[in-house]
Every structure is written in C-alpha cells, then in structure tokens.
Known about the structure:
Layout: H1 8-11, H2 39-59, E1 64-69, E2 72-77, H3 83-101, H4 105-124, H5 128-133, H6 136-151
Antiparallel strand pairs: 1-2
Helix pairs in contact: 2-6, 3-4, 4-6
Amino acid sequence: MADDVKEFDQVVKPAPPPSDLQEQPRPPPTPQIDIPQTAAYKKFMGETNDAYIEILKKLSRVNEFNIDVDGASKTYLRHKIKGKEYTEIEKLRAKYATLTEKRRFEEASDIYIEIYEKCALYYLGMSKQDFENGDLEEIKKVCDACSHRTLFPLPN
Length: 156
C-alpha cells in the first residue's frame, strides 16, 4: 500500500468501549402530587361526575353541535364512525391508561389530546386546525357524548 493511502480505522476512530462513555445527565424527575382522598374530595368528585353524566345524556341525543372556534361558532354534524376508527381511539385510551399508571404524565397528556383530536375528526369531521383553535371543553363534552352514543345507541 502506498504511504498516502490510509486504512478505514486510521481515518475514522472506533467508538470507545462502553466503560469509557460518560453517562448522560438525566432530567430531574417530574414532581409527583398525591391528592388526599378525603371524604370532601370524594363527594366533590361524585357531584362533578354526576353533573357530567347529565351533560352526556343531553348531548348524546343531539346530532348537530355548535362549537366555538377562533371566537366564532361553527356547526358540526355527528357522523357514525367505522370499527377501524373506534379501535384506533380505544387503543389510544389503553395507551393513555398505561402511561398514567406508570406515572409518565407528559407522554400521557399528549395521548389524551390525541384521543380527542381523533374523536373530533372521526365523529365531527373537525380539522386539526379547528381542533387546535376550538373550545377544548366543548369539544371534549361533544366527543364524550358521541363515544357514549356509539357504545349505547339511541333506541329506534
């Protein structure tokens, strides 16, 4: 070999063995907040849940929804969804539950929003832009009502 020709390992140095690698600093752990399950808290959550159920009962019978998007009311019609779409949403719900159990809350919150974004798309035909600029409280109520109606269809 000529003197000006170098072997590959002379040009590109091999990676150091694992023991020589510096450990990368880890981000600080997310603070964990445990809410005490007092009688007052349980009563509050029960009342909140009961009120939400009443909202779902009313909305699940409706096919037309007015939702605030960018400060203007937009009308959306409820669509029946396909089994494939429902399965996709349910898989996201399962992933959300798993991440929450593992206390991986940042990842779980991304999945939570994705669930409602998909629900809004499939049930209402809502665009990503409208979802991002819409009233999330209203979108969530409507999506929950649509999901409830899928599970418990109205009597004929």
